[in-house]
Structure formats: structure tokens, C-alpha cells
Design a protein that fits this description.
mainly beta, globular, 10 strands, about 5% helix
């Protein structure tokens, strides 16, 4: 285990594991997974036996349109090659271009977890998720990249906190789709002979 400073090269197994992180195409812009992974940190510790790498100090991970920023980033690979990434920070952030649109998914929280096996993004503590112009806030947000469904929870009720925090959302109306008069419901009339 040897700490490294600033920009560095990653061991091949770790680089392969990080590349697997971005494989799901439903959230990611398709070209992202073919781009190189760039990591910058003040320090890195790699534990090959446990398959855990810890990056600390102004961590910046980018790959194509993907950008994760935090104070600390922990990358874990399971025996099947799936990767889990946890970013920590006063406000850690995640951003990625959505496939097939000009929009982005952006997430913020004190802890951000990405599970490549489940294809989920979890945002914890003062969590906020923006998808294009829609925005939700709460204490815990789960976003599925497979289904593009998100679930938002306020704080957990405890004896000290009898009233949970409320969830907030701003959802933009979807643009109306103009239907040509001939195919509109109720307009299936034929001329009488």
C-alpha cells in the first residue's frame, strides 16, 4: 500500500473495476463508458487484498460527461467484479449527461453511493437530485438508472425528532404533444355517401 499524490496511474484491476461502474447505459450517455477515467486526489490508498481503494483530499473523478466531486471517495469491488463507489463531502456531487437528451442528472449530498450491480444512486443527508429542470430534496434519495424512478424520504422519526422533515419537489410540466386532427380521439368520422 503506497500513497500517491495528485494525478496518477491506477493499477489495471482497479481501472477495470472503475470502468465497470459506468457500464449501465440507461443513465449514462452511451459514449461515457468508452472514455478514460481520470482521477485526481491529494492521496490514494489501494488495498488489493480487500479490493478497496480510498481517495482523499479534493477528489475529482471524471469519465466523459460523468463528474464526481468529494472530500473522500471509496471504491470497492466484489468477487463478481461489480463496483460500489461512496463519495463523502461537506457536499459531495455527482453529474452525468442523460442518454439521448441534452439534459443532465445531478445529485448532491453529504454521502453519495453508487451500486453498479443494482444500478442505483443513493444520496444521503441534505440530499438533492436534479433531472433536467425537475428537482427533489430530502434526507435520502434513491435513483434507479434502469427505470429512471427516484424515491425521496424525509428524516427518520426518532424520540428526539417526533416530526420528520418534509420532502420537497419541483416538477416541470411535460410539453404537450400536438396530435393531428385526423388521429385525435373522437375524430374518426368518415364522410357519408
Amino acid at each position: 500500500m503506497c500513497p500517491a499524490k495528485n494525478k496518477f496511474s491506477l493499477p489495471v484491476p482497479l481501472l477495470a473495476a472503475i470502468l465497470l461502474l459506468w457500464a449501465p447505459a440507461s443513465l449514462a450517455e452511451r459514449g461515457d463508458r468508452d472514455k478514460p477515467v481520470n482521477l485526481e486526489a491529494d492521496q490514494v490508498t489501494v488495498d488489493d487484498m480487500q479490493q478497496i481503494s480510498t481517495f482523499t483530499g479534493n477528489v475529482r473523478l471524471s469519465q466523459g460527461s460523468v463528474l464526481i466531486l468529494g472530500d473522500k471517495l471509496v471504491v470497492t469491488q466484489d468477487k463478481n467484479g461489480f463496483v460500489q463507489v461512496t463519495a463523502y463531502g461537506n457536499t459531495a456531487s455527482f453529474r452525468q449527461k442523460r442518454d439521448g437528451t441534452d439534459g443532465y442528472v445531478e445529485g448532491y449530498g453529504q454521502r453519495i453511493e453508487y451500486d453498479a450491480r443494482a444500478e442505483t444512486l443513493q444520496l444521503h443527508l441534505q440530499a438533492r437530485l436534479k433531472r433536467d429542470l425537475d428537482e427533489v430534496t430530502g434526507e435520502h434519495i434513491t435513483y434507479s438508472s434502469k427505470t429512471e424512478i427516484f424515491q425521496v424520504n424525509g428524516s427518520v422519526t426518532t424520540p428526539e425528532n417526533l416530526r420528520p422533515k418534509r420532502v420537497r419537489a419541483v416538477l416541470q410540466p411535460r410539453p404537450k404533444v400536438d396530435t393531428p386532427p385526423s388521429s385525435a380521439p373522437g375524430n374518426n368520422l368518415t364522410p357519408a355517401e
